[in-house]
Design goal:
The structure holds two protein chains of two kinds. By secondary structure, chain A is mainly alpha-helical. Chain A is built from 14 helices and two strands; from the N terminus they run H-H-H-H-H-H-H-H-H-H-H-H-H-E-E-H. Chain A has a two-stranded antiparallel ribbon with strand order 1-2. Chain B is mostly helical. Chain B has 15 helices and eight strands. The chains are: A mainly alpha, B mainly alpha.
């Protein structure tokens, strides 16, 4: 039963990174587009993302609930020490979410559109950075767990582990990942000039992603961050990252040949590989403090709770996944049969 | 003020905010599908217009409710980590189900919002029903978790450890049904009178009377019916509280002395220091009857509880009085609506509309008051008789800043949404030329 719960935890993490990530990324792509491109990017995003964006963010809540119910001790540490960055994430999720809806459902088109647009774009950029910083804080090996409030001040206990270069690099890396996903997904949604625009974007964000990835790992390695060291010494993780890098070549080919769906799946698969590599090197020790490594599986909930949760998740999965699939299919987000689009 | 006070204020504020948006998001889809159904049946374009207008409202409220709900799910952990650590394995079940229900709602909303002219008509309409049903289910599930805090069950508490956990028993705790019923009815009353009131205002100002009258009629029926059912549910809740949380009942009634054949106090001014209540109206023996179904039953007074287990009495008493008063008033408003079904000429009377304008916000005030009764009335416990609120709060200092941060966020949201709604309503009164664009 524990494995079912773990499966759903990782599954929702993956879908949040992929779908929520593409969602954030869409805003980043819009932010980094020229004024003229912003316009059509905005409309494309609405068309593609509109029906699904709310569902994309529910994966985060599912993840949170699973952590809370099944892994309460882990959740407890995470939520206490990430109080501030997660509050910033919430601000971002809230503002960009409402801005996205308001800019399409406001009955009057006027200057307020300006504010909705910029809130959406900036929020989409900043939120994944803070999310990444939160994750960076968990694995950065800087968290100090103590009740000695005399020696350690507020900054030591609640700030320094997420407000440092390593965490920031993780944040930027995740934002770049989001933008890479979104721009690759968007290519298939446009023609002519617009398509070229997204292709260019995709190439740009791929480059940023690769560079940031290299900087992140080498910075971590040379400053002696345990997570990075373990990552580099783990052959499976390295192989996954390597494979993900190699797969960029077929990806570019697919994009050129306008294989709309295949390129999406491939980009998604690359992200899966990166995520797997990151988690594999250290699973289940996903909090690394200054003193020790804390396992997700420490002090888990009693068996009765785990089985109950597993059953609920299975039932939920049987209801939600077909619905979600049907939703994506109805609005042409996925096609089972691959057909290159030619006008 | 201390860290704890700010944490409590922040929780109260965010919950108070979320509950309004959640209620509207839960109930408005039902108005929308009724109007949609009428459009499919009559093909009267006014119903289509109304459906689209309400749909936009639903979308805006859903997203606001969704993001404030997301924030809340984090906040619970951020503010009360000790509570969450122990409560999670016990009361996680309704939360995981709620996650699923919320997901279904988001998927259905995706279909409904973007499915106009793309999906088969009946299926499209049906997805609207799913939005409403899953919204109500979400609400019931969350309230069930709150019920557990009032009536903790599904575990054994031995030497400070929670053992023998039974998530199903915790989910079906003794308070879940009465609380969920009361809250669901309250959501229907408040939203229905709220929406009807907005349309009544437009009718009062003679703007697009035909459309707004149709809207008013659809919206008000739900509330008028629910307002009549609410006292029955309230009675169930009162008996439940009397049995399980006698101290809360005593605080609701500011009842200090233990008494057989206890009177019901209406209104009154509470003096917490001298432990008295003055200027109240007394109905002899009524409290004993309402709480226990027996005019001579003994009602335990606040003086017979330990001092460190008393909630703030005045706030709970005033909130309770407000809730009851508004409930009664709205029941009469519902009655007037039912009479007006026979006496059609009332619809021409401006005072008729004025009445519904005046009562429009009251349902929400009653909901807030009701939650104050539930939550403040449970203090100093976060889990009744098991864990104190002060032991659950985060060790992180500086909650003051956190409070102001969230206060800012939610205030901005509330102002924006109100402003947006105002624009929606105004656009309804203009000629429907741009309507085709959105469909």
């Amino acid at each position: 039963m524990l494995y079912i719960v773990l499966f759903f935890l990782l599954f929702s993490l993956l879908l949040y990174v992929l779908l929520g990530g593409a969602d954030f990324g869409a805003g980043i792509v819009e932010l980094f587009s020229s004024a003229r491109n912003k316009e059509h990017t905005r409309d494309t995003i609405y068309r593609v993302m509109g029906p699904i964006w709310e569902a994309n963010h529910i994966w985060l809540i599912i993840m949170l609930v699973i952590l809370w119910v099944a892994f309460p001790a882990y959740f407890n540490l995470m939520i206490i020490y990430l109080h501030i960055p997660l509050s910033l994430v919430l601000l971002g999720i809230t503002l960009r979410g409402v801005a996205f809806v308001f800019r399409h459902y406001d009955a009057v088109l006027d200057k307020s559109q300006f504010w909705y647009n910029w809130l959406f774009r900036i929020g989409s950029f900043v939120t994944p950075i803070f999310l990444g910083m939160s994750f960076g804080a968990l694995i950065g090996g800087e968290i100090i767990i103590t009740e000695d409030y005399e020696t350690f001040g507020f900054y030591d206990l609640f700030m320094q582990h997420w407000l440092n270069i390593f965490a920031l690099l993780v944040g930027l890396f995740y934002a770049a990942l989001c933008a890479f996903l979104a721009s690759t997904f968007l290519i298939g949604e446009a023609d002519g000039k617009a398509r070229k625009h997204y292709a260019k974007n995709s190439a740009f964000f791929t480059l940023v992603l690769v560079v940031l990835g290299v900087i992140l790992i080498s910075y971590g390695y040379f400053t002696g961050i345990k997570f990075a060291e373990d990552f580099i010494q783990n052959p499976v993780s390295l192989a996954c990252v390597g494979l993900s890098g190699i797969l960029l070549f077929p990806l570019w080919k697919f994009i050129k040949k306008e294989y709309r769906v295949a390129s999406r799946y491939l980009a998604g698969f690359q992200v899966v590989l990166i995520l797997f590599a990151a988690l594999y090197a250290h699973f289940p020790y996903i909090i690394i403090t200054a003193e020790e490594e804390i396992s997700l599986l420490n002090n888990i909930a009693p068996e009765s709770t785990i089985s109950n949760l597993a059953i609920m998740l299975l039932i939920g999965g049987f209801v939600i996944l077909p619905g979600l699939f049907h939703l994506m299919k109805s609005f042409n987000m996925i096609k089972v049969l691959e057909k290159p689009e030619k006008d | 003020m201390e860290n704890l006070d700010y944490a409590r204020l922040q929780m109260a504020f965010t919950l108070g905010f979320h509950i309004i948006f959640a209620c509207i998001g839960m109930v408005m889809p039902f108005f929308m599908v009724v109007s949609h159904h009428k459009w499919l049946k009559t093909r009267n374009p006014i119903y289509k217009r109304l459906t689209m207008a309400w749909l936009k409202g639903v979308a805006i409220f859903f997203v606001t409710g969704a993001v404030s709900g997301t924030a809340l799910s984090f906040e619970l952990g951020m503010l009360w980590p000790e509570f969450m650590k122990h409560a999670g394995p016990i009361i996680g079940m309704p939360f995981s189900l709620e996650g699923a229900a919320f997901f279904v709602e988001a998927i259905a909303l995706g279909f409904y919002l973007y499915g106009w002219d793309k999906l088969p008509e009946k299926f499209h309409w049906f997805t609207g029903i799913i939005i409403g049903v899953s919204g109500v289910a979400s609400g019931i599930l969350v309230v069930s978790a709150n019920g557990w805090m009032n009536a903790p069950s599904g575990f054994e508490y031995i030497n400070g450890e929670f053992t023998n956990i039974d998530p199903v028993a915790a989910f079906l705790n003794p308070a879940w049904f009465t609380q969920a019923l009361h809250m669901t009815l309250a959501a229907f009353v408040a939203t229905s009178f709220g929406v009807a009131g907005i349309h009544a205002f437009q009718i009062f100002r003679k703007r697009n009377v035909e459309l707004h009258t149709k809207a008013f009629k659809i919206a008000i029926v739900f509330g008028a019916v629910a307002a009549f059912l609410q006292p029955i549910s309230g009675d169930l809740s009162a008996k439940d509280v009397a049995e399980r949380q006698p101290v809360k009942l005593a605080a609701m009634e500011a009842h200090y002395e233990t008494q057989k054949g206890a009177p019901l106090y209406i209104g009154g001014i509470v003096d917490e220091e001298n432990r008295t209540i003055s200027h109240k109206i007394e109905i002899p023996k009524a409290l004993s009857f309402l709480a226990f179904g027996d005019f001579d039953a003994e009602v335990k007074g606040l003086n017979d509880f330990p001092d460190d287990e008393l909630p703030p009495v005045a706030i709970v008493h005033y909130a309770f009085q407000t809730m009851i008063g508004i409930g009664t008033l709205l029941m009469f408003a519902g009655l007037i609506y039912f009479i007006s079904l026979r006496k059609k000429n009332w619809l021409q009377n401006k005072y008729y509309w004025l009445l519904f304008i005046v009562v429009a916000p009251l349902g929400f005030i009653a909901i807030e008051a009701g939650w104050i009764v539930t939550e403040v009335g449970r203090q100093p416990w976060i889990i009744h008789q098991i864990m104190r609120t002060e032991d659950a709060v985060t060790p992180m200092p500086g909650m003051k800043y956190s409070f102001f941060y969230y206060l800012f966020l939610y205030t901005v949201l509330a102002i924006t949404v109100t402003w947006l709604m105002n624009r929606q309503i105004k656009s309804l009164n203009q000629e429907p030329e741009d309507e085709d664009k959105t469909t």
